[in-house]
Amino acid sequence: MFESKNPQRTPISSLGEFGLIDHLTANAKVKLANTALGIGDDAALIDMGDHYQAVSTDLLVEGVHFDLSYMPLKHLGYKSVVVNLSDIYAMNGVAEHITVGIAVSNRFPVEALEEIYAGIHLACEKYNVDLVGGDTTSSRSGLMISITAIGRVEKTKAAKRSGAGDNDLIVVSGDLGGAYMGLQVLEREKQVYLENPDMQPELHGHEYILERQLKPEARKDIVELLAALEVVPTSMIDISDGLSSELMHLANNSNVQVNVYENKIPIDPSIYTLCEEFNLSTTTVAMNGGEDYELLFTIPIGDHDKIKANPNLTVIGYVKEGSGANLITRDEKVIELKAQGFNHME
Ligand code: ADP
Ligand code: MG
């Protein structure tokens, strides 16, 4: 039996997800000269001489990150890969290899695992990534998938969370809030089904947001677009926990203040009526929803002309000296953003 030397029993929830990571990794000293960037970014960077190797791991747990009552297994395999590749793209890199760890209980037949792997292979095909290893083990409680993605980053183009500078513009790809609203619809239909299994789920008309939740894509195309436009982001992060949380990461890591305009946040038109139905504010959903897997980055103001005509990119604000992240509302009130986002530890 494992006996802790320390008799204290501090609840994990008292630290929160980021607090816990900080607490556990505070003593992780970097010893090797080729560790160019350790804990604290979307991916670590290892100095390979002429380039960096980017490495990132994500763990998905049944009942926490996905619900198999509405998540098709093939989509789950696909999404598990995509969320990891997103972290490599967030370094302005090219993902090349993945390894897959899977823990599975005996309630899953071989065919179920084949479905998950069909999704994994499809994502590898689409993103031009090779599956090169992993681990398989049994689990007593549900399914867990842990993927490590490895990529290549040009040294002069690496986009960390820490490089945003005074006067930079803040840019986001795609649109926000869709994945969260997709989840709301799926949860609603699940409840309807649980109350009356004869009812068919009402998913028609919600295709876009359901795809955002169940089969998201990572923005490899944006990394390629930025290269073609000859724009090197000064900082970048992917939007997994929500715009609000990622803006705070950029501000804290870059020691700057970030300011974004509520009326500039890109939101898909289909979300507006749905948010009314659910009595939610579109801004809150876009700021805190999470799982959009878009890229949030900063560029020097001089690069504005290069990106301004592109429909995939929206300038949402600006960086200035100082600290913290602010939302400038439609009626020009300044609201300081506070730590929140999805917190799986609560
Ligand atoms: P992301 O949202 O981009 O996946 P996380 O918030 O999960 O990033 O992690 C933040 C940083 O902390 C990353 O550098 C990650 O590698 C590191 N990290 C997370 N969990 C652990 C852990 N258990 N041990 C060591 N490092 C960790
Ligand atoms: Mg990330």
Main attributes of the structure:
346 residues, 60s Ribosomal Protein L30, Chain: A, seven-stranded mixed sheet, six-stranded mixed sheet, 10 helices, 13 strands, binds adenosine-5'-diphosphate, binds magnesium ion
Polypeptide structure, described:
The structure is a single chain. This protein has helices spanning 16-25, 73-89, 110-127, 178-195, 207-214, 220-228, 243-254, 270-277, 282-288, 304-307, and strands at 35-37, 44-47, 52-61, 94-104, 130-138, 144-153, 169-173, 235-238, 257-261, 295-299, 313-320, 325-328, 334-336. By secondary structure, it is α+β, with helices and mostly antiparallel strands. It folds into 2 domains: 12-157, 60s Ribosomal Protein L30, Chain: A; 169-336, Phosphoribosyl-aminoimidazole Synthetase, Chain A, domain 2. The strands form 2 sheets. The chain has a 7-stranded mixed sheet. A 6-stranded mixed sheet has the order 1-2-3-6-4-5, with helices on one face. Helix 2 (73-89) runs parallel beside helix 3 and helix 4 (178-195) crosses helix 5 (207-214). The protein is globular. The two termini are 27 Å apart. The protein binds adenosine-5'-diphosphate and magnesium ion. Adenosine-5'-diphosphate is lined by residues 21, 24-25, 39-42, 58, 87, 240-241.
